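::Amino acid chain::
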Amino acid sequence: MEWHLALLLMLGMVVGGMFLGLPVAFAFLGANIIGMLVFMGGAGSLEFLSAEMYESVARYSFLPIILFLLMGEILFQSRVAFRAINAVDLLISKMPGRMSIVSIAGGTIFSSLTGSSIANTALMGGVLLPDMLKRGYAPSIAMGPIMATGGIAMLVPPSALAVLLGSLAYIPIASLLIAGILPGILMAVAFVTYVLVICTIRPDLAPAGEEDSTLTTSQRWKPFLIYVVPLMGIFVAVVGSIFSGIASPTEAAAIGCVAAVIASIAYRSLTWEILKNSLTETAKVAVMILLIIAGSTTFSQILSVSGATQGMLQYIETLEFTAFSAVFMMLIVLIFLGAFMDQVSMMLLTLPFFLPIAAAHGVDMLWLGVLFLVVMEVSLMTPPFGLLLFVMRGVAPKSISMLQIYGAAFPFIMLELAVLFLLFLWPDLALWLPRQFD
């Protein structure tokens, strides 16, 4: 079979399965079974399929993903972030769009604790959105910052997706986690700047901030020192142990889980029921991710056996891409796919094609990894099927329409694309910080 027909068959089965409503893991599994029978022949090939799926997930490097998920669930289920958010609120004086800025600051802090975009958006949306709407904030300026800040969890440590990408693309995980810090901060600064500017130009979007003049400086800073600084100790414990070489990413993730439990106990927020729910939710998400990884990895092997991967690479080589144009092409493909697919599936579907192309053109894999993470952050809010759009739909009042949610996301998508463009033009924005630790 010609390589392009094999590629069309395999991709068509996966996309067709998802279009019919199959979970991503089962869409991959169905395509893999048919692909094995077509390209390897006989029922015996199914034994190879099961062995290949097992080998694809029986890797120690995937363990940090599970532990980071557990750490985030403990902090999320125990709801220790509420006090931290209120503490940040007290520090912000009267300014345009005060609560929107609180959502960005609080969301960025929570991102550095959980590494989970979904947990971040669900928590911030559930806590802040009803109060913001009640105070008279326009839905656009209330929902947009919450969704946008949720995506920062994909960039800053301890990003579970960064760990997954580093494991699959053989990028040093510690370097990739470090490389995401500066782009994440740049993203948060861009969001705050936008809120300040738009709320100054259009004061109807947000009511004027109300400052309690009876509070002393000590009363403003005391909650921050009590509820925010200790939580940031979790970030220091996780990231600091990786930076210093004391712990591997797996060991650092385990340290983070222990620190999350200690923090929840210290704030008297941990019960056996909360711990049980944290473990249950972690298991659900972990099984889903590992099934998708198993299906996608096997999918890439079948593509290789069919000749589709080699044929496509040979075709691309005839196009004579430069390194920058090859990377630009990859980003365009990912942005397009992000409007329809979840991030894990999108990454696992494209890496078998993109990694050989990048290697052939001598592309810096660390820089490429950061670009991929930013694109996947953009895709979290890209209509029509961006994941955080539907998380927001779940926590927003029924009176809010999906069109309003799309509209709230749009300016922040543009800001994220602007940051992506800067990283594309100036790779040192992503590579400078990791080089300081070489």
Residues 56-276+388-435 form one domain.
